[in-house]
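Run: sequence + flavin-adenine dinucleotide -> complex structure.
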Amino acid sequence: MDLHSHHPYWLMKSGIVKPYVSLQENTQVDVAIIGGGISGALIAYYLANEDTSSCVIDRRHIGMGSTAASTALLQYEIDTPIRKLKEYVGLYNAIKSYELCRKAIYNIQTICGKLKKSASFSLRPSLHYASFKSHFKGLYEEYSLRKTYGFDVKWMQPDELQDKFGFTAPGAIFSGDGAEVDAYLLTHHLLSHYQAKGHAVYDNTDVLNIVHNKRGVELETADGYKVNAKKLVIACGYESLRYIPRKVAELHSTYALVTEPLRQHKLWYKNSLVWETADLYLYFRAVDGNRILIGGKDDKFYNPDVRDARIKQKSKALIDTFQKKMSGIPVKADFSWAGTFAVTKDGLPYIGSIPEMPHTYFALGFGGNGITFSVIAAEMIKDLVRTGKTPNKDLFSFNR
Ligand SMILES: Cc1cc2nc3c(=O)[nH]c(=O)nc-3n(C[C@H](O)[C@H](O)[C@H](O)COP(=O)(O)OP(=O)(O)OC[C@H]3O[C@@H](n4cnc5c(N)ncnc54)[C@H](O)[C@@H]3O)c2cc1C
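>> structure
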């Protein structure tokens, strides 16, 4: 499957960060990770110092799956608000999920701080505004829940929004915890660290077949080589769905653009991540080089051709909607692209095993918060590889 259109900004900006080679011999490791996107790279990073041998295998170039297309807002607020999530998983688990996502943001900060090269990580507050008066009540209820359970949130009234952000809305939640990153660069930097610890990364290596046996798994690549491993981690992004014999997610198309560099340097309050409650939503954030990233206008995924044929129209719609809100910041699209992403029924990821695939762990960070979910998955999979156990296993299990 084509996971995104041809010109995501991050790819154009950073290009080939680092060359890797394909697998050209049979090999044996304790843990094989299929997928060299942000999920596989984070898992590799967490396993790098463990007393286990491992390798990362990707059919594309590294980071060229969904990761290259990601707009990489790091938020603890998942697609499903707590007030709705509690109906699926109960209040305790809903709060717990939000807390784990919040912790994941700071874990990425720590990781980025330890890496030798910058992946443009910055902490940023986030603003979630009510698009319509009819959304006020639900958003205020969400604010109250989060405040009660100790999240750093503030309610913003229309006047304050106008003053700080240059637009008005019926009300908004201003959250202190959030961040942004270049997920494509971060993937390469994580895997550089992993290689420096003596582990192998193979790109251009398509795993065509997975055979389960008593000792673990045997992977067969398109070039005819075999990888034997005691444990397998599937971090294949949306392409992981082919390994799961039941429907766990729906595919959507999503659109994004990065503007030309702006003349003005002052944008809006703290360059916060901004998003709205409307269904056909808009989000935006600042990007290095005095540009703005604008995204949203998702629709149902049919096929990559239909998705990509809509880029021009969606890009115009994103600019028009942004301009209606932020008339004081004239913008012009410079790079526009489309990507595919998967949505689960409750907005939570799937992390763990299924009975049909022994010795195998899945790291499926689906939804708009895929990257924060990938951090949670990496921590959990490290525990599972070590001991077979991890806290919060049930929260993200396939049986929930
Ligand atoms: C436009 C867009 C905007 C987004 N915005 C955000 C955001 O703001 N915040 C956020 O947190 N998330 C966001 N996401 C989601 C986020 O980008 C994804 O959750 C994340 O990139 C998924 O990473 P991954 O490593 O799991 O998958 P991928 O990056 O797709 O990596 C999986 C890899 O597995 C490889 N693979 C698959 N099958 C095989 C095989 N058989 N053999 C070998 N290799 C294989 C693929 O080649 C691929 O490189 C966005 C996504 C899109 C498309």
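>> summary
The CA atoms of residues 25 and 225 lie 6 Å apart. The first strand starts at residue 27 and ends at 34.
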